[in-house]
Amino acid sequence: MIEKQDFETKANGGGDVAAAFDEFMGAFEAFKETNERRLGEIERRGSADPVTTERLERIDRALDATKRVVDEFAVKGARLPIGGGGQRGGVSPAHKAAFDGYIRKGDAATLRTLESKALSAGSDPDGGYLVPDETERAVNSALRSISPIRAIAGVRQVSGTVYKKPFATTGFETGWVGEAAARPQTATATLAELSFPTMELYAMPAATSALLDDSAVNIDEWLAEEVRVAFAVQEGKAFVDGDGVNKPKGFLAYPTVANASWSWGNIGFVASGAAGAFPAVDPGDKLIELVYALKAGYRANASFVMNRATQSAIRKMKDGDGNYLWQPSQKPGEAPTLLGYPVAESEDMPNIAAAAPALAFGDFGRGYLIVDRVGIRVLRDPYSAKPYVLFYTTKRVGGGVQDFDAIKLMKFAV
């Protein structure tokens, strides 16, 4: 018999990604076996044995725990190394050495000279100094691995503070015409503009003098490791429900309308059919309705977005042939699937509750745009928290919906 504590012991005991993935698949098999027992008890007696229900909940939690271990291994394996000898990928050894001197000793003279020669925007020492390119790439790569929305959304880098994207509200007129027939004059398109301002996101890791004096410590790697999680957590929440005030605007912050009445500027939704829940009969049909609320051109690259609690509820659902709608990933680093579409797990999505938009489905690559301003800046502060040295690290990022037809929601309402 497979129990939750067995998985926790293995997950915390180390090992490699293959072993962790085997444990995850074992947990899913145990989950299916126990859920089948629960469904059989409901069919025979009208209710499930509390012992069976409790065991299913334990295994469900263990399934999430082992999945997190697998994901952590996959992220670590995909992380870009920082450092090494020589100039690689356009990295400037002079900039790297000057930045290292600034971080460790506060020597900004060489770094200031380099940025002045490069005509860096905003190179005022009060605003900090740009990290080396490879450190910026490592942070951005880690953000993509950690932030669920960044992993599926469209991303564009800009050098300015605002990215403006024109779009046509009415297109050029078209039609069929004979080979020798006169061509009537067509009307011009009506254009509008979407604006995506970038907002400042900051983290402030602290270091001891001993760490900064230790030449064995790769200071670039330390800084990237310290800020990546802080950045990912903050921007991940903003991409979901940010209000657009000093932060990106999340896709849940836009007006919503019933999908049958959808219009540009709104996010369409379908109702679950029950207040704060899936319907008791054929709940999977509502998931299919959500999928087909999205136009065919968007479905090929679409993903589900939900939090862990919603995923736990859906994990128990089966189709008419007894197959589970939710399926585990086929190899480490891949997302699980629901109805054949990948699932992005975002804890910033709301829980299932009355009228809550707890489930999203869409082509986020076309529907949601993340705008990164090039450059991550660091300002060294050895005074504010003696004996620690603070590193005020900032990046500018914006985001918002760019195609309102590419994302659909499920509201848990009648």
Summed up, what is this model?
With 414 residues, the chain is an alpha+beta fold.
Give structural attributes.
414 residues, alpha+beta, Major capsid protein gp5 fold, 2 domains, 8-stranded mixed beta sheet, 7-stranded mixed beta sheet, 13 helices, 39% helix, 21% strand, flat, disordered N terminus
Mind explaining what this structure looks like?
With 414 residues, the chain is of the alpha+beta class. The chain has two domains: 4-78; 102-169 and 189-307 and 346-414, Major capsid protein gp5 (Major capsid protein gp5 fold, 2-Layer Sandwich), CATH 3.30.2400. 39% of the residues lie in helices and 21% in strands. It has helices at 4-12, 17-45, 50-78, 93-105, 109-117, 133-146, 148-152, 209-213, 219-241, 284-293, 296-299, 308-314, 364-367; strands at residues 129-130, 154-158, 162-170, 190-197, 199-203, 206-207, 256-258, 267-271, 303-306, 326-327, 337-338, 341-345, 359-362, 368-373, 377-381, 389-401, 407-411. The strands form three sheets. The chain has an eight-stranded mixed beta sheet with strand order 7-8-17-13-9-12-11-10. Strands 1, 2, 5, 6, 14, 15 and 16 form a seven-stranded mixed beta sheet that branches. A two-stranded antiparallel ribbon has the order 3-4. The protein is flat. Mean pLDDT is 85; it is low at 1-14 and 84-89.
How helical, in percent, are the residues? 25-40%
Mean pLDDT: 85
> What multimeric state do the chains show?
single chain
- How many domains? The number is 2
SSE order in H/E notation? HHHHHEHHEEEEEHHEEHHEHEEEEHEEEE
CATH fold name of the largest domain, please? Answer: Major capsid protein gp5 fold
CATH class of the largest domain: Alpha Beta
State the CATH superfamily name of the largest domain: Major capsid protein gp5
Question: Cα-atom Rg, whole angstroms?
Answer: 25 Å
CATH architecture group name of the largest domain:
2-Layer Sandwich
Distance between the termini: 40 Å
Number of helices: 13
What percent strand?
Answer: 15-25%
Question: Largest sheet, described in full?
Answer: 8 strands, mixed
Low-confidence stretches are: 1-14, 84-89
User: Shape from CA axes?
Assistant: flat
- Could you give the order of strands across the largest sheet? 7-8-17-13-9-12-11-10
Instruction: Give a count of the beta strands, DSSP E runs of length 2 or more.
Output: 17
